[in-house]
Amino acid sequence: MGQLEGRTAVVTGASAGIGLATAVRLAAEGAHVFITGRRKAELDAAVETIGPDAATAVAGDVADLDDLDRLYDAVRARGRGLDVVFANAAAASFATLEQITEEHFDRTFGVNVRGTVFTVRKALPLLNDGASVILMSSVRADDGVEAFGTYAASKAAIRSYARTWANELKGRNIRVNAISPGTIDTPGLDAVADTSGASGTSDASDASDASVIKSRFAAGVPLGRIGRPEEVANAVAFLASGESSFFLGANLYVDGGENQI
């Protein structure tokens, strides 16, 4: 029997990368996982990967409150409340201070901050006593990577919310914690790497070569490589389970020592 047997979980941004790996892991621990993301075809494929009996897909954008309502209507219809929320969905792109546009700022904060706030806010009526809420922060909130300031600031906001909400919800025995991955090999990293040339952070000759960008990140990791989505999923599963019962308001780094050594 898994550590989450009979539990209900929500994972946002679950069509690929860390979100998908986490949904797979939570389902393997016995949870029924509601997954959401903007691309329906990828979500449908994710359900097949997770297992149709273990996952329900609800397409939507976490920055759209109507889409979040549809997600939680589906959870409510199942009639078992909600035990785990992993607010994972995020948007990232490079832009220096001079290059920041309203669109860049609004999209980044709209998904990463507004989306996270209302993912959790709208889950509150459904959360069972003893539920676990895990917020996706990042080592980028700490390290000042050039041209990544908007993303970094959004992730610093998430870390701050984790502390506040942990204090606000502890009376319901709901644990709120954050997770801060380092550089992880995901489709999202490939997409960010593809934007780096436009931001002036790499030479035009290698701007489209994601492997070059990944190798540069890997060079800054003490373990000598970037991480795998499954390694982050393992940490999320720990925070979702009773094994982390004395974790509250914490920020768990999964970064190969990138921001620790």
UniProtKB/TrEMBL annotation:
GO BP terms in the entry: fatty acid biosynthetic process
Molecular function in Gene Ontology: oxidoreductase activity, acting on the CH-OH group of donors, NAD or NADP as acceptor; quinone binding
Protein name in UniProt: Short-chain dehydrogenase
Organism: Streptomyces tsukubensis
Stored Pfam families: adh_short_C2
Database matches in InterPro entries: KR_dom (IPR057326), NAD(P)-bd_dom_sf (IPR036291), Sc_DH/Rdtase_CS (IPR020904), SDR_fam (IPR002347)
Family according to the record: Belongs to the short-chain dehydrogenases/reductases (SDR) family.
Record keywords: Oxidoreductase
Ranges where the Ketoreductase domain occurs: 7-182
